[in-house]
Every structure is written in structure tokens, then in C-alpha cells.
Amino acid sequence: MIFNRMLGLFSSDIGIDLGTANTLVYVRDRGIVLREPSVVAVQAGTSRVLAVGDEAKRMLGRTPGSIVAIRPMKGGVIADFEITEAMLRYFIQKVHNRRRMVRPRVVIAVPSGITEVEKRAVKDSALHAGARDVFLIEEPMAAAIGVGLPVQEPAGNMIVDIGGGTTEVALISLAGIVYSRSVRVGGDEMDEAIVQHLKREYNLLIGERTAEEVKITIASAIPTGEESTMEVKGRDQVAGLPKTLQITSEEIRDALKEPVASIVEAVRITLDRCPPELSADLVDRGMVLAGGGGLLRGLDRHIAENTGLPVLVADDALSAVAEGTGVVLHEISFLRKLSEARAR
Fold first, then answer.
1. What's the pTM value of the predicted model, to 2 decimals?
2. Mean pLDDT estimate for the chain
3. Domain span including residue 219
4. For a designed S-S bond to 106, which of 131, 170, 261, 343 qualifies (C-beta 3.0 to 4.6 A apart)?
């Protein structure tokens, strides 16, 4: 116990947004110091880690048979316990300049819909990776805190956090989540919709990195008034040869109709479960979009048209959850208050 306390003196507490697509690490008093893909490259048939983060993502779809690039998080939860632990250890040591004798307190944001077993897996992974203490906070709460919503007030605050694997919609009041809905739809689902569209319409096979590039460059939820085109390279399924073609923003918008509709439906269901007094607050306050998926062009207008409420995109949507864990690091008493609110 004394040894643990001594190690704590030499560490900086950290907050982690352990996302399906990217992991962000916030170090107390330093801000966000790391933002890397949640990807690990391992030796095939073993758990020997060869690369993590940016270096591993560059290997996706380009590895020889002896190397496998793995995304250990699926739908916001751990799919591979051992690889997640290795990834967390790498990130913790990296932000502490490779020092192994460091045991920080760690706040980790997790999806609101995960089970107690999944929460235990996240905690155990962080503890085995070198954390001294581990606190969990729901992603929508962390995102709401990160974008500056007054979550402790007795008024309705609504956040829509669209990550890589999940979309979290939550109604928050008095430092507690009144109602939340978590759906396994996010940026990855959008990428997969683009992959399937090109395969179906053009017999063109593309990788997830290319699909993500298409989404960022020309995708939108509704017509934006200026249609654009993009050159995409992949492999022709019929000829088996490399192929290049031009695609339009209009067809990509059609390809994304299903995942976008799922997000809008999650928002509508949450509003339907909202108590009348808090509904009245939302008429003026509206809701805030956070997460990488919240940056999809026109999504804010599309949700506003379907709900009749004001919709704002967070200034730094990608960092909202990590910033929220950072705020909580300075307010461990607030974290305990959240735990008590959940227990009631």
C-alpha cells in the first residue's frame, strides 16, 4: 500500500477516451497529449505486439501473412482483452515517457449501455496495464462535461456522442443521466456502408482506410448545395485488377441513409422518454453533437429538421469525451457523486 502511494507521487493522473476508432489520453495539468488509432499489430498466431496506434493503423490491409493488424475494441467494448491491455500499457507508458515504475490514477470513459461484466473487463485491463486506481464514467456524461454543458444544474441537457462504434444519446440533469440510449452505430458503420455500396454498384473492393477518407472528404447527411466528386482506388472483383473510378457525394449520401436514420431514431426515442419539465428546457437549450461522427456534413441540420430543436456541433467534437475525463480528474469528488447517483 505504501509502495503504491509512493509510485503515485511520481505519476500524473490520466483520463482515457478508449474509443473503437481512436484512443485519446488526457494528462492532468497538461491536457490531451495523445490521440492515436485504437489499432494493434501482432505477430500472427501469437499475442506478441509489434506496433500500436498510428504505426499499426498504417499496416491495416497492408500486412504480410506473418503480421495481423487488430482493432481490439468493437462497438465501444473490449473484444480482445489481452490486446487491449497491451495497447493501454503502451499508451500509459508513452505519456509518461516510457517510465515503467509509474502507476497513475485513471479515469476511463465507457459506453452507457455496457454490462457490468464489460465494465469489469475495462477496469481489469487498465489495472493490469499499470493503473493504480481506475474510475469509469459514461461516455455521454464525459462528453457533456467536455463540451461545457451545465450538467450539475436542475435542468435538461442533451448530448449526442457519435463515436466509431457507438452512438450515445443522453438526457442529463443534476449530475445524473435521466435517460440514455446506446446504439451500435457510428463512424465504423458509415465506413462499412460505403464499402458495401462500392462493392454492390461497381464490383470495387476498397479497404476501411479508403472508406474513411471518402466519408471525411465528400460524405453528407443531406444535400449541402454543392455536390462533389472523388477518385477512389481499389480492386475490381471481376477482373481481379487494380481499378480507379469517380464517385459522387450524392451516391455516398444515399449509401449512408441507413446509419444516419438509426442515429436520428435514437435521438427521437430519447426525446420521447424525456420528462415534460426537461422537454421544456430542451426547447431553448436544444442538443449538442460530439464525437467524430457528429462532424458529418449536414447531420446537425438533419436532426434539427426531424426534431424541431436547435442542434449545435461541439467546437472540438473529437476531443469532447477526453476533455470531460480531464475535468473529472480535477474533481474526483464529482466522480464519487456520479457513482452515488448511479447507485440510487
1. 0.87
2. 88
3. 187-257
4. 131
